[in-house]
From TrEMBL:
The lineage of its organism: Bacteria, Bacillati, Actinomycetota, Coriobacteriia, Coriobacteriales. The chain crosses the membrane at residues 12-32, 38-55, 62-81, 87-108, 128-145. It holds the Pfam family CbiQ. This is Cobalt transport domain protein. Its main location: membrane. Keywords: Cell membrane, Membrane, Transmembrane, Transmembrane helix. It is a multi-pass membrane protein.
């Protein structure tokens, strides 16, 4: 298992399996009957991250979950904290399992994701929209980090106090370049998908083999069972 994780066990799983995990995580996060069942589903998602060699990220999510739950308990029962609000903390701890599943989806290569979506009964235009949506967020985050580093090297972004004291400068030097770069990235992602033949109506072949294996069936079954238990 350790050797498989070093080479990327996430590359051995089918994209449809991760989509099932994302769907089950969203349902469980929204319709969990109690905090105990929601916490149990969080443990399941943490086990998934550990299985795919992302245990550090899983522990970080558990830490954020614990901080949100602790802050919510202090605000509701003791009124110690005034910020953030209980509603915001509730949204944070509710959405963490879904964010963990989306992180697994981001790790899947674009070609493998497209090959898995081709197995689903959906129009080609819908597949194109899903591929661009699922790939835009991590790409936009990378672009934001590059813009921030470039602006900091040029001296446009200073300390946090300076950024808060001059919010309009921060917007001009950081967010405006990010918006224009995001527009360019979205066009490039769409063009890349079209060039690879996503709109071609005939039969397509892929570098990745989209096939359900024993690992896919096991992971999908665990996620579905945990979702049913969490909601019922």
């Amino acid at each position: 298992m350790g050797k498989a994780n070093e080479t990327g066990l996430i590359r051995l799983i089918d994209a449809r399996t991760v989509l099932v995990i994302v769907l089950c995580s969203g349902i469980a996060s929204m319709f969990a009957r109690s905090m105990a069942t929601h916490l149990a589903y969080l443990c399941v998602m943490t086990a998934f991250l550990v299985l795919f060699g992302k245990g550090r990220q899983g522990l970080a999510c558990v830490l954020v979950y614990g901080l949100a739950m602790g802050g919510l308990w202090l605000e509701v029962h003791h009124g110690i904290l005034a910020f953030p609000s209980p509603l915001l903390l509730s949204m944070i701890y509710r959405m963490i399992p879904t964010m963990m599943s989306l992180y697994l989806l981001i790790l899947i290569p674009s070609g493998k994701l497209t090959a898995g979506l081709r197995k689903l009964p959906m129009p080609a235009q819908m597949r194109l929209i899903l591929v661009v949506m699922l790939r835009f967020a991590p790409t936009a985050l990378l672009e934001f980090l590059e813009v921030r580093n470039a602006m900091r090297v040029r001296g446009f972004l200073g300390s946090l106090r300076k950024m808060l004291r001059s919010p309009m400068d921060t917007l001009e030097y950081a967010l405006v370049p990010l918006i224009f770069r995001s527009l360019k990235v979205s066009d490039e992602l769409s063009a890349s998908a079209v060039v690879r033949g996503i709109e071609y109506p005939g039969h397509k072949e892929s570098y990745y083999v989209s096939k359900l294996r024993g690992l896919d069936i096991t992971c999908s079954g665990v996620a579905l069972a945990a979702c049913i238990v969490c909601c019922l």
